[in-house]
């Protein structure tokens, strides 16, 4: 009925239903909407209809709407629902969603929220929020189907039917032994093709790809994208199955990790989006800027140290921003290659050497090209062959050093288990600034008598 | 059997089987390995066993291995197989994988490869490679299950069973009318829960979320991550169902798009990874560097224009790198926020205004803080109150302008449908260099009599 309706038309229809208390039509529209769209509709509605909208929604759809909201709005809606209804919603929520809702809340608030929940669900969630952030344990949920090893295919199918409503994805189910140890996996396809009387144990796939609960979420994303899985089982030390990570969360992880890399590369501080308030955004960005300001002053004092040279040949100042800028740019380029390369590569020593050697060559090629180019320009512009040679040689050397710094610094950080993206673009740029000024003025001072 | 074996142990076992021509054991190991691992094993093997390995593999597993390889290796293996076997492999390959294999090949090579293929498959692939790159049409495949509207649930289940081997994901199947028009979708869950005699038409979900074949792949990724789908149907103008995009490809898209953003933000040029040869990498990076070199010379000529001022007060040079650097850094920060924000937000005019206003405030807060800070330092360092005021005021103004430039330039580009990440960090940095030098020396020249 609403198949071709626009969002606005749906909103108007909702308002009409709410006005006329027409719950039947209301529910028939709800039935046709995806959770994301339903949540959007809720937020579109004028304030005065929102409460009634929540009242009309069955618990199941309410849960879906809440899962799509931002944390702030989730808490607001839960409060409106009252303890009884909200505890039912919390019971129905996916554990990973619930865990992320509870993240950053005061312990008191957490207790209050989950106090009325079903014990088992509450324990599961408490368990999840104990894992360190950004690990498999933190993003896993318990909406999966498992069967004991002695089960037949028919019994497995029956269990699957029973849990069809609950489980997020039915692509695989997991086989466990008496100690809850994960021993196999069966894909739904295999189940369809198998004989009803087969034992699950005989058709299961035993070399199960799984992750430990403490595995970094980025590593989990790598594994899932490598194997094209829709879900991956999460185990603890003893191979005990404790949850699954689903592909929808992995997409969020990939986006989040890419954003983090970009934030660090651009030193823009943690998590600033379109909704962040100015004071918060400024506060998050300032620390880096102050540090960079300090390092910028180091550049200043280097120039100060060479001020005698500079006073004699003011033309040296003309090429200062270009040399510093170019060194920074080439360093940032190398850095970006390394940071993103590390996302999908494991590094061996051999590969590190190859990479550094490659970048050395790139530096030399870039250095020769740009160095020659600028020598000629400097000569034509300022009419001094010596100045041309000084500028060209400096650029040649600084470009090689800049390229190597942009490669080696993040690799060293990575080796010491520091996230290489911390060696943010601006940091590399600023370090390269200092190098390039020292080299430039050093060479210029050596040639000062001829300039 | 091989459940707990390490990769090396599996390789050794493979070598043994190949030596002893023990195909039975060989196939039982193959059966336990994921395609990715099987392809890795193939690449681990000493050259002399690789051909025998390919000979031993059944076509189905051969296809899986080939799909995991890089284009270069894919072509090599296909050549080794000979026309007959390779055409069978191509028939079995997922169309999107095949399409990406054929990308960048000469038309002659394409014809040669697909000449022996099954007509229908070949047409499908030819169709896919006609879509512009980075669109839904280009990454879709035809491994989906569809049923006509009059079908019953039992018939649908039967069809599903028949296609279980072929279809990548069985999470949903699509309902079409007489004209192949997509009119509904049924999830596997709903099918399990439905009565066998129900008509598919009655249990299907009519408000189908779908994408046009020409939709940008980034938009497709957004929609899929919003709705947590595992597959999404792709239609042409007339709603005719032409394929599906699967979640595994979407993860690749998300990673690729993030890499592209980072490449552009760092002006590192197209696609440089750990394997790229030095000459190629240098060639890809040089164009940007040359452009930036040119713009750097503009900065130089600005300083040249103010050389009278600079000659009188050489101390002005000390703060030059810091002011230019800080303006560049704050611009990059704003740019990163905008570029990544645009990945998941659609922009309304209201939101643009809010964002620009927010960044203006951020610029003012950052400007006041850093400006005051540097005034004091400049005064203490150089003992000149006027110099302190000149440096502080300049930094205040340039930080505001830098922040706004980093926000507004990518937004304008976005408005004109240019990818905002093209306004790469280095470009913004270089533009901000020019602004900051003009302002700094402009203010200094105005106060020159007091300096």
Automatic annotation (TrEMBL), chains A, B:
Residues 140-203, 204-262 form the CBS domain. The chain crosses the membrane at residues 286-303, 315-339, 360-381, 387-414, 426-448. One of its GO terms (molecular function) is magnesium ion transmembrane transporter activity. PROSITE patterns: CBS (PS51371). It comes from the Bacteria. One of its GO terms (cellular component) is plasma membrane. Pfam families: CBS (PF00571), MgtE (PF01769), MgtE_N (PF03448). CDD domains: CBS_pair_Mg_transporter (cd04606). It is found in: Cell membrane; Membrane. Belongs to the SLC41A transporter family. This is Magnesium transporter MgtE. It comes from Halobacillus karajensis. The lineage of its organism: Bacteria, Bacillati, Bacillota, Bacilli, Bacillales.
